[in-house]
Amino acid sequence: MPQISRSERERNLEQELRVSGLLSGSELARRTRSSQATVHRTLSGMTERLVSIGSTRSTRHGLRQNVRNLGSSWPIFRISPDGQPVSFGQLTAFSRGYIFESANETPTWLRNIEGQPVFDGLPFFLTDIRPQGFIGRAIARAMPTRVDFPPDLRFWNDEHILHYLYEFGSEVPGDLILGERMLNEALVVSRSNLIQRNDRTEFYPDEAERMMAGETPGSSAGGEQPKFTAWISDSPSGENYEVIVKFSPPCDTPVGSRWADLLVCEFLANQLLGSEGFDVPDTDLIVASSRTFLESRRFDRAGAYGRRGVLTAEAIAAVYLGAADGSWIDVVRSLGNAGAISEGDVERISVLAWFGRLTANTDMHLGNLSFWFTDDSYPYRPTPLYDMLPMGFAPRSTGELAEWEFTLPPPLPIDLRTAQQALPLAVSFWRCVSKDERISGTFRNIADDCSERLHAWAERFSLSGLT
User: Fold this and answer.
1) Which partner from 62, 226, 430, 447 sits 20 to 30 angstroms from 233, CA to CA?
2) Which residues pair with 295 in a beta bridge?
């Protein structure tokens, strides 16, 4: 038989690895009909093109994949709550996915993921901090002027997300940073753009106008409602902190008035739930230049420079359950059964989910529920609640105020306890809305109607708490 050259043997191994992903030396020997000694010698000359995991006989090899000319391996860092850089791990792309190697002893959250440290796509903790929602769409529209990116987020793939995080990801949600250049940007950022707390009524209307004109994408905080981020300086306390600011259209239109009503409702829901011991962000309501602004302090930021890790329920469900769909209640029960969430947190979240149902929140998708993400995040603990407002009454995407009937689902036996706990909270909410003079007369009438429907529903299912 003619002797096979070393370069041909390398090509044969590359072909097998490109198609199959990670293979051991014995698997490569069998597939290429070579001896293990020959495979070992050939691999020893390919180390720069390979990534290997495992040890001794369990070692598997993969073919490194250059992603958009950014290389094939990148360090990932955390920024701690006190603003210090901390090594998180190393991400390596290979022909069939990504490998994540923790910088420290394998954390609990990673040990509980099937197949780790290998991921078919970009790991969930990175896809979860991609640009999303209103601000994300503004970022995507601006990207093609810089690099080759689709202007529509729906057409971004894992490589686009990785590229964005590597080149522009110094101010993403959570505490993770991809690559040393973005880490340096995150650490040396100045806070020269601080807004004095007393100046918000002047700054916020101007920023809202710029956002609607598409001029200032800013931080990639998620969510579909119009919003921007800002850094606030509170002179009396000397504290600097970052906020997310939702804003209504001008309130002199029916649509603007409705969005203003809904932002007041969100503020009232936060105040109510916070007074009952639920974890909610600090919020403030501001009316200026015919717009209503709801300011929420970012819970993934700590002071002027610190950060905290967060993950959405969507990301956690996808990796631990294999699917990211279903209601809050269904998903947290499944995560609880898997050990990813404590029994107590399953119940607390279920109460909040029922509160949302009883207050017409039709937008409780899994991106609107988050959990803290730290090295010992298992089980995961919920972050402060956000986006709790009666979205069933929101204007349609066409800009119309369509009629919408508030209907309440029957509580199944498994739901009775949490529905009962949520009922008095919902009763108080609608009562607060109906009496708040910052809310339009039209929506106060809606609140009265919702309250009547809630009472009828509670009587139908013999639930107490209607005082």
Assistant:
1) 226
2) 245, 284
pLDDT tens track for 231-254: 999 867 778 899 999 999 999 999
* Band (261; pLDDT cuts 50, 70, 90): very high
Asked if 304 and 377 touch (Cβ cutoff 8 Å), the reply is: no
How confident is the model over 20-32, as pLDDT tens digits? 999 999 999 999 9
The per-residue pLDDT for range 371-403, each reduced to its tens digit, is: 999 988 899 999 999 999 999 999 988 888 888
* Cβ proximity of 382 and 280 under 8 Å: no
Is 148 marked active-site? no
Please give the pLDDT value at position 441.
Answer: 97
Other CB atoms within 10 Å distance of the CB of residue 115: 9
- From the list 363, 375, 436, 449, the catalytic residue is 363
Determine the pLDDT at residue 1. Answer: 46
HEC string for the chain: CCCCCHHHHHHHHHHHHHHHCCEEHHHHHHHHCCCHHHHHHHHHCCHHHEEEECCHHHCEEEEECCCCCCCCEEEEEEECCCCCEEEEEEEEEECCEEEEEECCCCCHHHHCCCCCCEECCCCHHHHCCCCCHHHHHHHHHHHHHCCCCCCCHHHCCHHHHHHHHHHHHHHCCCCEEECHHHHHHHHHCCCCCCEEHHHHHHHHHHHHHHHHCCCCCCCCCCCCCCEEEEEEEECCCCEEEEEEEEECCCCCCHHHHHHHHHHHHHHHHHHHHHHCCCCCCCEEEEEECCEEEEEEECCCEECCCEECCEEEHHHHHHHHHCCCCCCHHHHHHHHHHCCCECHHHHHHHHHHHHHHHHCCCCCCCHHHCEEECCCCCCCECECCCCCCCCHHHCCCCCCCCCCCCCCCCCCCHHHHHHHHHHHHHHHHHHHHHHHCCCCCHHHHHHHHHHHHHHHHHHHHCCCCCCC
Give residues with Cβ within 8 angstroms of 417, minimum separation 6.
347
Spatial separation of the C-alpha atoms in residues 182 and 308, rounded to whole Å = 17
Q: Is the pLDDT of residue 217 over 70?
A: no
Whether pTM > 0.85 for this model: the answer is yes
